[in-house]
Task: structure prediction
Amino acid sequence: MHEQTPDTPPAPAVPAAPTLFDWEFATDPYPAYAWLREHSPVHRATLPSGVEAWLVTRYADARQALADQRLSKNPAHHAEPAHAKGKTGIPGERKAELMTHLLNIDPPDHTRLRRLVSKAFTPRRVAEFTPRVQELTDHLIDQFAGKGEADLIHEFAFPLPIYAICEMLGVPREDQDDFRDWAGMMIRHGGGPRGGVARSVKRMRTYLGELIHRKRDDLGNDLISDLIRASDHGDHLTEAEATAMAFILLFAGFETTVNLIGNGVHSLFKNPGQRARLQDSLAAGETALLETGIEELLRYDGPVELATWRFATRPLTLGGQEIAVGDPVLVVLAAADRDPARFADPDTLDLSRSDNQHLGYGHGIHYCLGAPLARLEGQTALATLLKRLPDLELAVPPTDLRWRGGLIMRGLRTLPVRFTVPNT
Result:
C-alpha cells in the first residue's frame, strides 16, 4: 500500500492583464502599470493607433532603454510604414518638414544640434528670465482673481508657458496670441482627430520659418537670434534645422509645463497634508520644500507619461524580452517613477523626498533641454498660487475631472477651482 502524497497546491492565478488606453485607464493608469511592472515589465501592446510597441515599465529597464544607443530616435528605423501614415511622432511634422529636431535624430547629428541649441538655451538665460516669469504669473492670476473661480488649465497653466517660451524665442507680442491658438488646437485635439493638430503644426512651421528669415537681418537677444548666431560661427545649422529646433522648443516646452502645473495642483488637492506643509514653508519664506516638491510632483504624477518613440536598430534583450530590429519601444516614465524597487513608498506623495532620481525629464543624451525653464515655471506658478489664493480648492467633484486622451502626455482637460477673492 502506497502512502498518498498530498496534492501540490496550485500556483496562485495571475490576475488578468489590465485594459490599457481606455478612459478608465487614462483617469488612473497607475494600478495597470503596477500589474505590468510585476507580471510583464516589457510588454507587447497594441496602441490606440493600431501600432504595436513594447512598453517598458520598470525603473532599471527604463534607464537602460533611455540610454541605449541601439534604440534610435529616427523613425526611419521603424519596421512598419506607420510613421509615414502619421501614426507615430508629432502629427504633421513630416508634411511640415520638421523632422530634423532633437527628438528625432541620433548622434552625430544629435550631438551637433544639441551643442548648438545648448549655446542658446543656457541656465544663465533661464535665470535671467525669472523676473519675467513672475510677471507673467501674476498677470494671469490678476485676470481671474476677482472672480473667485477659474479653470486653472485654460486660464493659467496653459497660457503661462506659451507666453514664456514665445518671449524667449523672440516671437513678437502681437503674434503670441496666434501661437496660443495653434497650441490650443494641439491641447484640445492631441488625443483625437490629428488633422487639426497637423494644420496647426504647419502654420507654426510657416510662421517660424518666416520669423527666422526676418531675424537674420535684425538679430536680438532671444533664442531664435542665438540659433542663427550659432549657425553663422563655424558650425552649420540650416534654416530648416533652425525652424525645426524652434518648433520643438515650443512644442515640447509648453505642454509639459501645462501638465506639470495642472497635475501638480491636482496632486496637492489629493494630499492636503503635503499641501499644508508647502504653504507653511512658503509663508515662512523658505524655498527648500518647493524645490524638492517640484521634483516629487514630477515623479508622482508627472506631465510626460511615456517617453517619445524609439526604434531598435539591432536585436537586443530588455527586461528578458527579445526586441527585434525595427520594433518600436516606448519607455513608460510614469510606471518607472513608481517602481518600488527604486523608490520607497512610491505611491505616497512626499514633497521632502530627497533621493529622487526620477525620469520625468528623461535620461541620457535626450534629457530634456528645457527642464530648467519648466522647473522655474512650475515653482513660480505653484508658489504664487498658494500664496495669493491660499484657500484654493477644487470646484467640482474629483470624479468629474477628465484627462486628455493621447499617448505621450498626461494632463487634465480642465481644472475648475474656487477661492476667496483676495483683498486688493
Remarks:
- Residues 239-270 form the longest helix (32 residues).
